Amino acid sequence: MMQIRSLAAALALTLGVGLGTSSVAQSAKPVVTVFKSPTCGCCSKWIEHMKAQGFDVKSTDQMDVTPIKTQYGVPVDAQSCHTALVGGYVLEGHVPASAVKKLLAEKPKVVGLAVPGMPVGSPGMEVPSGQVEPYNVMAFDKAGKQTVYEKH
Fold first, then answer.
1. Which of 50, 114, 135, 140 could disulfide-link 92, Cβ–Cβ 3.0 to 4.6 Å?
2. Which of 147, 150, 121 is nearest to 136 (CA)?
C-alpha cells in the first residue's frame, strides 16, 4: 500500500496536482509555458484569455524569442509575437483557447498550431470597436508544412 501511495504521490507531483482527500484522478489544468517579450501587452492579454479558459499559464520573459521559435520548429511565415508549449505541442501567436482544447483532445500528429501575424480581434488582439479580422489557425508539421486547422 505504501508503494502505491508513493507512486500516486510521484504521479501527482509530476502532473502538478495535490493528493488531498480525493483521488489522484483529479483533473489537472493543462500547463501552458509562454515565452514572450517583457513589454508585450498583447501577449499578456493572450495569457489572460488562456487563464480565463482554464489553463495554468507560466510566463517567461525573453528579450529575443526567435531562438525559441527556431528550437521548436515554428515556420518563419507562421511566426508571431509569442511562443508557447502545452501538452507536447507548440503554440505560436494568438491561438484561441478553443483551438488548443481541440488540439489536446484530438492529439493530431502535428508539431503545433499558429496564428500567423497578429490579426485584429484574435485573443489578446481585441479592439474597443469589436472589429474582428478573419484569420486561420494553422497546424504545422516537422517539415514546416501548414494546413488550416480552424477558420475564425
1. 114
2. 150
Q: Kindly tell me the sign of the dihedral angle through the C-alpha atoms of 77, 125, 133, 115.
A: positive
The tens digit of pLDDT for each residue in 30-67 reads 999 999 999 999 999 999 999 999 999 999 999 999 99
The secondary structure of residue 30, as a DSSP letter, is P
Q: What is the CA radius of gyration of the chain?
A: 17
DSSP string, 83-96: EEEETTEEEEES--
Q: Which residues are paired to 61 by β-bridges? A: 36
Q: Which of 115, 126, 118 is nearest to 151 (CA)?
A: 115
Q: What residue spans define the domains of the chain?
A: 28-151
Half-sphere exposure of 77 (CA within 13 A, CB side): 7
Q: Is the whole model's pTM more than 0.90, yes or no?
A: no
